[in-house]
Design goal:
The complex is a heterodimer of chains A (280) and B (295).
Chain A lengths: L15 H25 L3 H6 L11 H41 L5 H10 L9 H10 L6 H26 L2 H9 L4 H12 L1 H16 L3 H6 L8 H11 L4 H31 L6
Chain B lengths: L8 H27 L2 E2 L8 E2 L3 H8 L2 H33 L6 H9 L6 H12 L5 H7 L13 H29 L3 H9 L4 H12 L1 H16 L3 H7 L12 H11 L3 H28 L4
Antiparallel strand pairs in B: 1-2
Helix pairs in contact in B: 3-7, 3-10, 4-7, 5-11, 7-10, 8-9, 10-13, 12-13
The chains are: A mainly alpha (280), B mainly alpha (295).
């Protein structure tokens, strides 16, 4: 919202209807979220008295009682999603680089074979994945989530990284080779810095997918203390079923981390998408 | 390190990708196929081979499967016919060069997409609430329309879920379209304008054909996403899908059979049917988009 800072609004006549459509869309999009904030500041009496308008006094106490429960889930999610993102970024960057810049037997076949399987819906493997994870003794551990999220996200991420590295001009690399750089130096000092927008995009898509994943944690994590945020919020909903204010304060708190990340990183995310990723 | 081992080095460096992928993705995919030919109830029991029985039962005797398939297809159609065009319109407006606060709008439209499914479900319980809810109260009542029993009446459940879907997915799809619009050189449109083409003609003959790759991408994602729909309807109307199972999607059905009743074999057969449907639809869609090429 910092972008609103005191710019004077001048509208050309022709653009006015468009602006109005955008604003109407914006209100429709945002109002439900505002409603959550409004409800989060009410006591139960206020909630039943007036459903969708704010009422004084605001109950800020709802936030502290909700935070006491929610913070643990946020920490869990940061750890789970964070490790997943780091692993995916590292593995996909290396694999994408190798697929893009090396020639080796079966390269295309290998790559196409893996890409086709991107169509396979996640739930298809839900049952056998659960059996596998259970047999490995990973149920109720972070590894149940991280291992599956990493392997699931790798395909798309490697694809994105590969198309990005392919789009970089050969001269960039030639210069480094002429200077006597070894392959790993070219990768670390030339390719990775250049690929920052795409790494950001990979990180973002992974973040959204893992942060809000519900079905896999639902199956593998039953221990309340270890639940990621999406599942924790559901647990929280049943624990606080009758305390509307606290419940909604919890929802607001749970939405803040991703909103912050995206407010800051939106530009990087878009620029990664623009740089030829989807064309592949 | 690359000198002598140049031949095996590439394989070495992609091996983490392969290993992770093979263990937690490829193996379950194959395992699932095998499991779908077995009868397995409970986790400890030995599976029994029954050939195509699971599939035959799905298609011929399982009304709930057909129901969930119909519901999911209803949603997919809604998402393709309503959400995708809406996103395209939004993107065209957002792309207009004179627009102010573009970044702000972009962020605004993106917010639903990063809100957790559980929260979205709860919000929309308020939106669709019969007596006090937003839609009935703020939109329909002023127009003199009677309260719609959104989540209580079977025929209104899928429209409600589509409205939720539109709220959640229009923004991100608009952003994908914007990316595509940015990649179209403005000279092309100007040239067409100079040649006397009207705005709609420019859109039809210049913009739309050039957007095809993005359109294919958006539609593919929409199809995959629709057939994987789980969190929102579950929160909105419960795992059973509300009255007459009107909101039960295929993944919800799979989850119920597999993890409530522990029928892993049967659940795998549902999963494979779902995979085949998605694969076929995506391919058909890609072929259709190709068939509409201008050249």
């Amino acid at each position: 919202m910092a972008m609103l800072k005191r710019k004077r609004i001048r509208l050309g006549n022709r653009d006015l209807p468009f602006q109005l459509v955008l604003i109407a869309f914006g209100i429709v999009t945002f109002f439900p979220l505002v409603l959550v904030v409004i409800t989060s500041l009410k006591s139960n009496t206020q909630f039943y008295h007036n459903f969708w308008l704010p009422e004084l006094p605001f109950q800020f106490g709802n936030y502290s009682s909700a935070f006491r429960i929610i913070w643990r889930y946020i920490v869990n999610s940061v750890i789970y999603s964070g490790s997943t993102i780091c692993l995916i970024a590292a593995i996909a960057a290396v694999a994408g680089y190798v697929f893009a810049r090396f020639n080796f037997p079966f390269k295309t076949v290998l790559f196409l074979g893996f890409i086709t399987l991107i169509m396979v819906p996640g739930v298809l493997t839900l049952a056998p994945r659960f059996v596998l994870v259970r047999d490995l003794g990973l149920v109720n551990t972070p590894f149940a989530l991280i291992s599956v999220w990493v392997s699931g996200g790798l395909v798309l991420s490697t694809w994105l990284m590969r198309s990005y590295f392919e789009s970089l001009p050969q001269e960039l690399f030639d210069a480094a080779y002429v200077d006597g750089a070894a392959e790993w130096q070219v990768f670390i000092y030339v390719s990775v810095p250049l690929a920052r927008p795409m790494i950001a995009t990979v990180a973002m898509t992974t973040l959204i997918a893992t942060w809000n994943d519900l079905i896999w944690p639902l199956v593998t994590i039953t221990d309340k203390d270890k639940m990621p945020l999406a599942l924790g919020v559901m647990q929280f909903s049943s624990d606080f079923e009758t305390d509307w204010g606290t419940l909604f304060a919890g929802y607001v708190i749970s939405s803040i981390p991703l909103l912050c990340v995206f407010a800051v990183a939106m530009r990087q995310f878009i620029s990664g998408l623009t740089s030829g990723s989807i064309k592949a | 390190m690359f000198g002598r081992g140049r031949k095996i080095a590439p394989y070495l460096f992609i091996s983490p990708f392969f290993v992770g992928y093979a263990i937690f993705f490829l193996y379950p995919v194959i395992q699932s196929l095998q499991l779908s030919f077995y009868r397995q109830v409970g986790l400890g029991k030995a599976p029994r081979f029954i050939g195509f029985d699971n599939y035959i039962r799905l298609v011929s005797k399982d009304d709930l499967f057909i129901k969930s398939l119909t519901n999911t297809t209803y949603y997919a159609l809604g998402s393709i016919l309503i959400i995708v065009p809406l996103a395209l319109i939004l993107a065209l407006i957002l792309h207009s060069p004179k627009l102010r606060f573009r970044e702000f709008f972009r962020f605004l439209y993106f917010t639903p997409n990063i809100t957790a499914g559980v929260v979205v479900g709860i919000i929309f319980n308020l939106v669709f609430e019969e007596q006090y809810g937003l839609i009935n109260n703020l939109l329909l009542a002023p127009l003199g329309v009677d309260n719609v029993r959104w989540l209580r009446e079977a025929r209104w459940i899928m429209p409600a879920i589509i409205i939720l879907g539109a709220w959640k997915w229009t923004g991100i799809n608009a952003i994908y379209f914007m990316v595509g619009l940015q990649n179209i050189p403005p000279e092309l449109k100007e040239a067409a304008r100079v040649d006397g083409a009207t705005r709609p003609q420019v859109f039809r003959h210049v913009t739309l054909p050039l957007l095809r790759p993005i359109l294919a991408f958006v539609l593919t994602i929409a199809i995959i996403g629709s057939y994987n729909l789980f969190a929102e309807p579950t929160i909105l109307v419960g795992l059973e899908g509300g009255p007459n199972n009107a909101g039960m999607t295929m993944t919800m059905y799979l989850y119920t059979r597999g993890f409530r009743e522990l029928k892993m074999g049967y659940a795998s057969a549902i999963g494979y049917s779902l995979a085949v449907i998605i694969l076929v639809l995506s391919l058909v869609q890609l072929i259709l988009i190709r068939a509409f090429r201008e050249d």
